[in-house]
């Protein structure tokens, strides 16, 4: 069963259980997936990796919205956004811990022979495919900067 089919099946289950939060979150995710499928010059079928990228982007939107609502004193809306993010997180691969990420970056720095800030792009090219959805780009970039002494 593909990830998209799993989302659709879980949406049906959530609707039958009258779980409003889960149902609305899954509807939003499926809408984002469909939008991605029809974007561009020609419609296409997304792979599970593409679906994970869409879900990661949606989860990031939820985190950013929760921070914005918290900053504006709207805790009830921030709580809702966090809850939606938690629902999406169940479909995403487990996130890398700080130690694991540091180890991957260290190996990439050694492999590329990088030293100094100008080599950041080389290291990022090596690390990004290895991480693939298990850590945000900002976290990766921060660790690369730290290890390159920037």
Describe this structure in words.
- By secondary structure, the chain is mainly alpha-helical.
- The protein has 2 domains: 3-89, Hypothetical Protein Yqey, Chain: A, domain1; 98-148, Arc Repressor Mutant, subunit A, CATH 1.10.10.
- It contains 7 helices and no strands.
- The chain has helices at 3-16, 20-38, 48-71, 75-89, 98-112, 120-131, 137-148.
- The chain is globular.
Give the secondary structure arrangement, pairings included.
Elements: H1 3-16, H2 20-38, H3 48-71, H4 75-89, H5 98-112, H6 120-131, H7 137-148
Helix pairs in contact: 1-2, 2-3, 2-4, 3-4, 5-6, 5-7, 6-7
Query: Over all CA atoms, what is the radius of gyration?
Result: 18 Å
Q: Average pLDDT value? A: 87
CATH architecture annotation name of the largest domain: Orthogonal Bundle
- Here the CATH topology of the largest domain equals Hypothetical Protein Yqey, Chain: A, domain1
**DSSP strand (E) fraction?**
under 5%
- Cα distance, first to last residue? 45 Å
Helix/strand/pairing category = mainly alpha
Return the domain count. 2
* Approximate shape: globular
CATH classification class of the largest domain: Mainly Alpha
Portion in helices: over 70%
The string of secondary-structure elements, in order, is HHHHHHH
What would CATH call the homologous superfamily of the largest domain?
Answer: Uncharacterised protein YqeY/AIM41, N-terminal domain
Strand segment tally: 0
Mind describing the biggest β-sheet? none
Contiguous runs where pLDDT drops below 50 for at least 5 residues = none
């Amino acid at each position: 069963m593909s990830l998209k089919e799993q989302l659709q099946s879980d949406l049906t289950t959530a609707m039958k259980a009258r779980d409003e939060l889960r149902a609305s979150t899954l509807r939003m995710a499926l809408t984002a997936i469909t939008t991605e499928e029809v974007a561009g010059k020609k419609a296409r079928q997304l792979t599970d990796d593409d679906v994970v990228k869409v879900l990661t982007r949606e989860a990031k939107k939820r985190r950013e919205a929760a921070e914005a609502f918290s900053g504006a004193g709207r805790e009830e809306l921030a709580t809702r956004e966090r809850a939606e993010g938690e629902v999406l997180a169940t479909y995403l691969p487990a996130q890398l811990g700080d130690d694991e990420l540091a180890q991957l970056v260290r190996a990439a720095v050694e492999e590329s022979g990088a030293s100094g800030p100008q080599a950041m792009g080389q290291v990022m090219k090596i690390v990004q495919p290895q991480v693939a959805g298990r850590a945000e780009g900002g976290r990766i970039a921060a660790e690369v900067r730290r290890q390159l002494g920037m």
